[in-house]
Amino acid sequence: MLILIILAFLVIAYLDAPKLWQKKYWRELAVMGIVWSLGLALSLALALNLPVPSPAKLLARVFGPVTEWLLRLIG
Amino acid sequence: MREEGYISPRQAAVLLWFAVLPTAILFLPALLALRAHQDAWLSVIVATLAAGAVALVVYLLAQRFPHHTLFQYCELILGPVTGKTVALIFVLAFFLLDAVVIREFSEFLVTAVMPETPALFFSLSIVAVAVYAARNGLEVIARCTDFILPLMVTFIAIVLLFATPEMAPRNLLPILENGFRPVLGGALVSWSFLGQIFILAAYGAFVNPPRALRASLISGLLGIAFFLSLVTMGTILVFGSCEAARLTFAAYALARVVSLGQFFERIEALFLAIWVGGVFIKITINLYVVALGLATVTGLKEYRPLVAPLGALNVAMATLLYRNISEIRHDLLLVEPGWTLTWQLILPLFLLVMAWLRGKRRTGI
Lengths: 75, 365
Fold this sequence. Notes:
The complex is a heterodimer. Chain A is an all-alpha fold. Chain A has one domain (2-74). Chain A has helices at residues 2-23, 26-47, 55-74.
């Protein structure tokens, strides 16, 4: 699984990175690199069953009470 | 950052349908039946009126900044630092929305159709296709809808038509049994789907002529309301509100009951094929908007290189977000309304007010 993930991300990098390198689009390369490494890190963490907190939990903590308040307001 | 290429007002409206309908027809009727019982279809109409407020805000902002995307005028209105922060919030919100849609898609296929297949397989394959389409630009996505739209409309019509023998008008009665409050509660749930017409603020800049944006907003919203209330009404008519609330995927169940004679039945496989096409457009347009937004915020010349890594991150995020289908349903009922109301109505409204205040000051000088 880990090898498959790394292979998939190498393919994604191979799609665009060489062309950007040739054209000297450093900014594009940097932003793409950040998103790419975030994706790789998250995928590896999930594959290794590391405890990554879900953003849905964070949203639920903040906006759950908001929705509850709205519900009490109208329904 | 802007991209060359324009779409017609009609295509913008159809894209709007696809940005809302695919997941809405599948998940919404059951949630609505839970909240508003037999008055679920009234909730859709109330929510449409509320979504009209979003449409108005999007239209007024687009009139102020024609040929500018949402992410560009965030910066024009609020200045570089605050503007970029707000634009980044929008990018994150669209990103999360896309991840939720991918998860809903794979979760539906696993739960209802292919329980032995890992969900990751479905999300990977749909995102691979979506990345390919989003890299080709908005014009290509718009032309994809020309192919899928007739299929989807015909199919919804066929399902509703051939399900009529099973329908019982009694199921809709009594109207407004518990007053108007359950209807409003249902409208709040439908809001989190209907508010997604806000996505037009992101690609409305590519509609030519910009003046026609009003027509595409109105026809987009009315089309969504029409199909959504028809499917909701059909579900309630066939199953009754108690049974409909227990079905997780109401439109799919509706396709399953269709049976004409002994030969025209089990058309849910066809439903599946066409629905996957619809969700593909929804995921693609969201992915495109995320890539475009991120490219604008970071000041890039191209959004294309960002699409594939964003797609990969989206698959991982979709896997991370929820543990199972009941968590998605719980979130759609109790979290999403507040969240979507915040970023699809309050935040744009704030932008509009700021534009109005600052714009006035600028002309004063």
